[in-house]
Structures are given as C-alpha cells and as structure tokens.
Amino acid sequence: xPNIKIVxxxxxxxxxKTIRHSNLKPTPARIREQIFSWIRPLSQNCKCLxxxxxxxxxxxxxxxxxxxxxxxxxxxxxLYNSLYKxxxxxxxxxxxxxxxxxxxxxxxxxxxxxxDLIFLDPPYNKNYxxxxxxxxxxxxxxxxxxxxxEESNFDFSNFDGLLTLLKETTSGNSYGRLFEVTK
Length: 183
Prior knowledge:
By secondary structure, this protein is an alpha/beta fold. The chain contains five helices and nine strands. The chain has one domain: Rossmann fold, CATH 3.40.50. The N and C termini lie far apart (43 Å).
C-alpha cells in the first residue's frame, strides 16, 4: 500500500495510507506544497470542498493548514473506505463530512452550500470540468472563492468573467490551476 506524506501544517509529516487503484492519481507532494504556499494563510473559518476526493490528500492538507471543515466527495467504495480510515486515524472526523456518491449527484442534490476553497481533480478522460464547473461556480461559490483545478488540458476561456487565473503549475501532463471566482 503506497503512502502519501502530508507536507505542511499541523498534520505535516503524518501519513495518508492509500490503496492501489486505477482511479487514484494523488496530487504529488511538490504540487501540494506549491498549492498551499499560494493560498496560505487560510482564513480561520475556511470551508473546503474536495470533489473526486480519492485519497483526500488535498482536503486533508487544507485541514492541516487551518481550514475549519472539509466536505469529501468520493463515489468509489474502496477509496471512500480508505479515506474514512485515514480521517479516523488522523483524528479529524469532527472536522470532515464524507459522502459516498458521485460529484454529479452531490452537485445536483445539494442546496444552500458555499465554500471558500474547492478542489476539483477529476479523472482526465471524462470531461467533468465542462459538465460541472459552471454549476460549481453558480451554486457553491461566492466572489473570492478559490477553485483549484487539476486537469490534463482544458480551455478556460468559456469562464472569462467568472474566474480569474491566479497561479498555475505543471507536473507531467497535468496542469494545476488556481482560480478566484469573480462573480
């Protein structure tokens, strides 16, 4: 079972245990370190949404760096079980809510929720960004919400006026971009 080391914050150095799974592509430590250097310090009451959570490394890193709470969305039973066990082992179950369902279902069914920080790291070959991003912006964010999107290749010009690109980084064929909602 491979492990992911939490790179910063109060849980820095602790380990997230993962399972080998074809749908799991954890964000590399170098990229996580870069993301959190961009967004630190998190506001004391920062609420975070981690869609397509997988190992939960991005949301757990957010908690470690001061987020008040994280909502994890993961539909795969094995990945969900592993994420739950890690949250229990890290003693963060009081700060998280875990949902075993698809990101599409969560977005369609959830009402009256807004987040300060949203992680969107979907499987690259499913076109989830086109399907979900506008709804995420309209229904789950406010002006100033930060959205980190990890994707292999995507044209964000359709979202001009709604998102401002703040920072970007690459790792292999993956692009990580941090946006601010400007609605």
